[in-house]
Write a structure and sequence with these properties.
This protein has 251 residues and is an alpha/beta fold. The protein is 24% helix and 28% strand. The protein is built from 7 helices and 9 strands.
């Protein structure tokens, strides 16, 4: 491939701007940690945050994005619907989307899933064991049978999402709950991966196994022949329309 995979890391960047535990763990923002990780993996990375014009997701930025990662929590409803429309259109055209942790409740993920994406949760910093249930899937590359997050926020079933095209990870928590924590989907020409481990007050995004999963997910979600290709309707504007089929003449 002649160019680096182009990744835009999107984050609300609200929690981290106020003194407290979140800023202590992610002083430059969760997006900064993810961007550094993906840059080291060879990606060409840019960041975008909620309070930038167009939330940092202009037409130009998205046109130059092969994979978009999404982290949101406290301000899902502040994301403008016109930007959600824009991101959805790009996913359907072929841009990959990796949704992290509380991004399950983002407007874009709920739009693409067509469900509430609601779940149960408990914030106690308990142990999470992430089981690899699809070891041949590219997102599971480099992992063993399972890995553990020492202190995590419990996400539990029922999780109101469509059945994944591939369920890659299932998590178990100390309280006994289980959760579909790694789900792969296709929508239009685009690929979507949801990965639940990760919390704003816990250093989960520094953990090597978690970074491996996110890096794998970004590479898997990349459009075939990236950069992302336009939809057929866009290509038709160039003048290449299919030849109509002539009706069969009855004798």
């Amino acid at each position: 491939m002649s160019h680096a995979l182009r990744v835009t890391v999107w984050n609300e960047f609200r929690h981290e701007r106020h003194p407290g535990k979140v800023r202590d763990v992610y002083p430059n923002g969760i997006h900064a940690v993810l961007a550094e990780m993906l840059s080291k993996a060879g990606c060409a990375v840019r960041t975008a945050t909620l309070d930038e014009p167009d939330h940092g997701l202009t037409e130009e930025v998205l046109a130059e994005t092969d994979v978009l990662t999404w982290w949101g929590h406290m301000a899902h409803q502040e994301v403008e619907d016109r930007i959600v429309d824009r991101v959805q259109r790009r996913v359907l055209e072929g841009m990959g989307l990796v949704v992290l942790h509380s991004g399950h409740f983002s407007k874009i993920f709920r739009r693409l899933m067509g469900t509430s994406c609601a779940l149960t949760w408990r914030e106690m910093g308990e142990r999470e064991r992430v089981w690899v249930v699809a070891p041949s899937h590219p997102v599971a590359a480099g992992l063993g049978e399972y890995f553990e997050v020492p202190h995590s926020e419990m996400y539990g079933e029922p999780f109101d999402i469509p059945a994944p095209d591939t369920l890659v990870f299932v998590s178990w928590f100390q309280g006994g709950e289980i959760f579909r924590s790694g789900c792969a989907y296709e929508r239009g020409r685009g690929k979507i991966f949801y990965f639940s481990p990760g919390h704003e007050t816990l250093p989960i995004y520094y953990q090597p196994e978690v970074q491996q999963v996110i890096t794998n997910a970004v590479r898997w979600a990349a459009p075939l022949g990236w950069p992302a290709i336009p939809t057929p309707s866009t290509r038709i504007k160039g003048g290449h329309r299919p030849v109509p089929i002539e009706p069969v003449q009855s004798e």
